Amino acid sequence: MTGAGLSALAAPPADEPPLLFAAAVWSILVMAVVLLANLAVHLLRHWIGRLDRLVEAARQDVYLAHVRGPAAAVIVAATSGYGINILTGDADSLLAYLGLLMALPLPLAMVTWAGVQAVRQADFEQVWPPEAIPVDDRVKVRYVLRRVRADADRLADLPAGELDRFGALVGRLCEETVPALHARRDRRLRRWLADHPVVAAGLGVWGGLTIVAVAVGVGSGFAGPPWRIVAVVAGFAAVVAGIQAGLLTVLRRRSRYRCARLADEVEATAGGIRRRITEQRLGLAGELTVPPGRQRRRS
Q1: 272: nearest Cα among 113, 152, 156, 163
Q2: 137: left (phi > 0), else alpha (psi -120 to 50), else beta?
Q3: How confident is the model at residue 253 (pLDDT cuts 50, 70, 90)?
């Protein structure tokens, strides 16, 4: 990085705000954009829900190849370009790569987490029927539903022992998975935050660093009485708290909606297959108990 670029970062011109204060303002703007984006997704949940179910029902390798990878590439390109345009107009300077460096952690985390999910999904698919159905993972729940639907298509061909095991799995979906999804839908905020520690910690750290940046930037770059500096920091803290409270509300309501829709889907699918299993068993029992002499003969 050139000496001029370093000096500009360390000591901006007198008519410009301190770098930390400008970074805090941009951080708050990004928070607001994240809130508005999640709010838009929540308001369009009925339309997006169909796409959500389609993506989550896809095989994990198809999802990673055709959804997660391109999404990460788009985020890298958009965020790095955004950072370059905001921080510098000099594409020949090493400072031009700062936007790319700022953008890399997000797709890197996405790709790493995708790899972890792929390994967990592969391990989960090794055992059928599964020992447990994790209701906190919608992809796994929809994988189980996909396998259950496939087995239900050949229900009449299943041997008695396999039919019993299949019926037990369907019963677990009805009696355990559906109530568990309803319980997740009805979680209070404290329990929801405990179940989403990454979201809670991420927002806490993000908000805390933003407020610290405001305090340091205002304290070192603006002259005035102490009470005015405290008032400015308190005002920014109130804005950050309001945005994050709104974001948590939207995320929690979206989570409630997803749990409710998934519970309805599991209940409808498993309930219908369970009735088919009962009808098949009753039909087999009826044929076995009717004496041969009383069966109707066709003329």
Answers
A1: 152
A2: beta
A3: very high
User: Is the predicted pLDDT of residue 292 greater than 90, yes or no?
Assistant: no
For 220, residues 6+ apart whose C-beta sits below 8 A from its C-beta are 18, 20
**Residue 182 amino acid letter:** H
Q: What is the pLDDT of residue 118?
A: 74
Dihedral sign for Cα atoms in the order 274, 279, 283, 286: positive
More confident residue, 114 or 134: 134
Q: Can you give the pLDDT at residue 197?
A: 92
What whole-number distance in Å separates Cα of residue 222 and Cα of residue 51?
49
Q: Is 289 exposed, middle or buried (CB count within 10 Å of its CB: 0-12, 13-18, 19+)?
A: exposed
List pLDDT tens digits, range 74-85. Answer: 655 555 555 555
Residue 150: is it exposed, middle or buried by C-beta count within 10 angstroms (0-12/13-18/19+)? exposed
Q: Supply 31's token pair.
A: 């928070």
Taking CA atoms, 243 is separated from 32, 65, 207, 236, 273, in Å, by 6, 34, 10, 11, 45
What does the angle CA 221 – CA 222 – CA 224 come to, to the nearest 5 degrees?
A: 150
Which residue from 201, 136, 176 is spatially nearest to 266, judged by alpha carbons? Answer: 176
Assigned token pair, 258 = 């997803």
pLDDT at 201: 93
Do residues 17 and 221 touch, judged by C-beta distance below 8 A? Answer: yes
